[in-house]
Amino acid sequence: MGRELTDRSGTLLRTLVALHIRDGSPVGSQTLREEAGLSVSPATVRNVMSDLEERGFLHSPHTSAGRVPTDQGYRFFVDSLLQVNNDLDSSAFDSLRKELNPDRNTSDLVQTASNMLSSITSQAGVVTVPRPMQQPLRQVEFLPLSGDRVLVILVINQREVQNRIIHTRRVFSDEELRAAAQQINQRFAGQALAEVQSQVDQELLAARSSLDDYLSATLDLAQQALADDANPSDYLIVGESRLLEGASPEELQRLRELFATLESKRDLSHLLERCSEADGVKIFIGEEAGSQMFGDYSLITAPYGDGARTLGVLGVIGPTRMAYDRVIPIVDVTSKMLSAALGH
């Protein structure tokens, strides 16, 4: 980005970005001079604005003599000039603490986190749904049905219960199913389902080669019980309508294109997957999110987990002129409180 900004240039850029976030309109030199509180001439302010424009931080809409920040300007503002307000509003904090109750199951907590992010920030809230294979196995039970059909009851992550029906390669007695469940629980309880699946696959090959029919049958049951869990991560978006509030006709068209991108879930799923591997808050401004449809919007994310592993990521989608100083700590606190609830 070339040479560093002087204190005066930094103050003027920070003030201009704050004014644009507040009002949403181009900022003129006279307004900027008054709001910045600097004892400089109007000509000096105009010169600084021209320099900032040449460096890519600002641009002039063709319909106005004022300037607005570019994505690069917002990026510099967020990285170097932003003063984050870490004192979260007490009512927002109390609402998060009340709603993200450890007694709720994972699905409810994830849905609630997305709802709360949207409600508190007045933007769209997004959260990825934890992949079952990332979560620990607590217990498995097998109940015989008719013929070769067996009901599998999987208890994962302390409180999540999943039921499914599998077709076994032979008919099992009640006693055989109880013994198989007991052996699987003794050996694998507490391990992530993906780890269990990997071990089962390896041991199944060894058991078959050694002609150990009982062990092979038990592992075969475990393999079938876990087979349907290898689903790609999904995500929930709440509050898209909030992005429509106050949008201009031009912005409405871009929003429709953004909604179409979000609906397809391909690009955003890949981006959120990357975010879940990062530490702390990540901020994507405009096309940094990897899609032209994000041109006028930003994504702020933070990973969440259960204390032992990362389970997903949550965040906020809003216009590039969102109040970063307020939204960033809300995303950060929500991720920490969701993690605390899941790890309780």
What report would you give on this structure?
It is a single chain. The model has no long low-confidence stretch (mean pLDDT 85). The chain starts with 6 loop residues before the first helix and ends with a helix. The protein has a 5-stranded antiparallel sheet with strand order 7-3-10-9-8, with helices on both faces. It has 344 residues and is α+β, with helices and mostly antiparallel strands. The chain is elongated. It has helices at 7-23, 29-36, 42-54, 71-81, 90-99, 106-121, 174-188, 193-209, 213-227, 249-264, 266-275, 324-342, and strands at residues 58-59, 68-69, 124-129, 137-144, 149-156, 160-167, 234-238, 282-285, 297-305, 310-319. Helix 7 crosses helix 9 (213-227). Helices cover 49% and strands 18% of the residues.
Q: Could you outline the blueprint of secondary structure elements for this entry?
A:
Blueprint: H1 7-23, H2 29-36, H3 42-54, E1 58-59, E2 68-69, H4 71-81, H5 90-99, H6 106-121, E3 124-129, E4 137-144, E5 149-156, E6 160-167, H7 174-188, H8 193-209, H9 213-227, E7 234-238, H10 249-264, H11 266-275, E8 282-285, E9 297-305, E10 310-319, H12 324-342
Antiparallel strand pairs: 1-2, 3-7, 3-10, 4-5, 5-6, 8-9, 9-10
Helix pairs in contact: 1-2, 1-3, 1-4, 2-3, 5-6, 6-12, 7-9, 8-9
